[in-house]
Amino acid sequence: WTDAESDMLLDIISAHKASAGDGLNFKMTFWNTAAAQLPGPTKGAPKTAKACKERWQRMKKTFDVVDRIANASGFTYSRESGASIGLENEGVWTDFVK
């Protein structure tokens, strides 16, 4: 998946989020529609309904982790510098991942 393809998928998801219900769990009919709306792949395999659903699940899982870190006391997160993990805050991170 290219960044542009992922962005397109997120736009489609955002436009239809009301139909997903709690947890943004879409039915397979949605994923078929989403796959049909994406252009042919510029990189990698064709974007099937299954591929779209799996990509969304991976992106959502990553978001949930970043959101948890970004909203935890004492942590910062930015798209430019990530979570700023370093030796100076090693103890805080060690405690966080326990």
UniProtKB/TrEMBL annotation:
Domain Myb-like residue range list = 1-60
The superkingdom listed in its UniProt entry is Eukaryota
Q: Which InterPro entries match?
A: Myb/SANT-like_dom (IPR024752), SANT/Myb (IPR001005)
The protein's name in its UniProt record: Myb-like domain-containing protein
Species: Pisolithus microcarpus 441
